[in-house]
Amino acid sequence: MSATGTTAGPTPPTAPRSPLRVPAFRRFLLAQLVSATGSAMAPLALAYAVIGAGGGAGALGVVLAANTVPTVVFLLAGGVLADRVSRSRLLCGGNLLAAAAQGVLALLVATGHADTARIAACGFVSGVAVALTAPAAQGVLTRLVAPGQLQRANALLRLPTNAVKVVGPVAGGLLVAVGGPAWALGLDALTFVAAALLLLGLRLGAPAVRGGALADLRAGWTGFWSRTWLWTYTAAGTVLVAAFLAGYQLLGPVVAEEHYAGARTWGLVQGAFSFGLLAGALVCLRWKPRRLLVVAVTASSGLALPLVALAAGLAPPWLLLCAALAGVCLDVAGVTWVTAFQQQVPDDELGRMSAFNQVGERLAVPVGYLVVALFSHAFSDRSVLVVCAAIIVAATALNLCVRDIHRVRRLNGPLTEGS
Fold this sequence. Notes:
Elements: H1 23-52, H2 57-73, H3 75-82, H4 87-111, H5 116-138, H6 150-179, H7 181-200, H8 213-226, H9 228-259, H10 263-286, H11 292-300, H12 304-312, H13 316-344, H14 350-375, H15 381-400, H16 403-407
Helix pairs in contact: 1-6, 1-7, 2-5, 3-5, 3-8, 3-14, 4-5, 4-7, 5-14, 6-7, 6-10, 6-13, 9-12, 9-14, 9-15, 10-13, 11-13, 11-15, 12-13, 12-15
């Protein structure tokens, strides 16, 4: 089935040669970079805030759950809002809400009043902020750059944020070691404030509102289900994300500790994966495939590589190569997918379609961890890794059998009725 809808949103009448020549895009890019810098330091600071408050693994689990649950629960509400109000104002408000949560948490930690309940409450507010901003963020680029520039713009957005993922945790660790977690949390709050001011300056108009919020949600579900390529990709992605994160994030460190040099090897694997992400963004700056979804689905299968390498006990150099290739594949899949999504879905539906897509993948994370944790007691870690890798390959292979995946092609002009 081909995508249908109205125009994909206002774009500059004469498109510059590069998205970087568009002032509004540069502002959005800077906002994303500033926010990502603080967010990269926050997990480490949060963990040590919980430890400093006397909590252990159980308390940290409660805090992480308090942050994750509201993101899933309120994501659909965020999608409806993204199609009803100004996305720049919504992003600004969400970043200010996150800044308030992190600022209060930093103050609690600095004054010695932090405990598990209060930290979890701040995490809950942060999760709500993510739910409100994530769908809106997907609908910004279509209003800033021309359709033919979307892939390059998406790749340019991922380059600095991927770099921050490498540098941010190191900087956060140094800041926590020198000044304590309150300083890192406070800096994270300031980055959210700076990002909010930058995003407010975009001054994006509000989409046309036709009915009530519930009617919009029902119409969004109808639109989501009518696009076979969208819901099948979401379903396959949900399974794939669960298998990869469970195998890589949960079992990876365990296998590295038992069969390799422990934390040293796993740190190198993480570094190789991050390097691959950077390389993948660079690939997408040059390579512009016509069948965007076919590339996105096929590239996703590369996530099985490090799981197979760990299960087979390959030598460290081969393990690092597999991790780097997986990073390249993940970023190529991410850029081509979001470009196809932005080109094929009309502007006034982007928020809701993004919310439906993200709900499945976010639910997959805790489900995947739970299933693997249960089965790891009955089977060896390497056996579970093989199963996770097989699931990734099977999910991508089945998705490639969907005819509509092959029908979605790159657009060089605006999406028009019946295209």
